[in-house]
TrEMBL record:
Native organism: Halostagnicola larsenii XH-48
Protein name, UniProt field: UPF0033 domain-containing protein
CDD domains registered for this protein in UniProt: SirA_YedF_YeeD
Domain UPF0033: start-end pairs: 1-60
Keywords: Plasmid
Amino acid sequence: MPIVKTKQAIDDLEAGNVLEVVATDSGSMSDIQGWADGTDGVELLEQVEAGDLYTHYVKKTE
């Protein structure tokens, strides 16, 4: 589900803005990385694991 919500949120942003995604699913680390790698117009800036939280910073580039 993090991918679907991330895609929806990114669509609402203007180019240059950064979206912070916080998830509790460890699989989001690879899921969001793969999604960002295969999606034009987005760049995964950073991923942070802190206990049971996984935070992803995704920039809309176009």
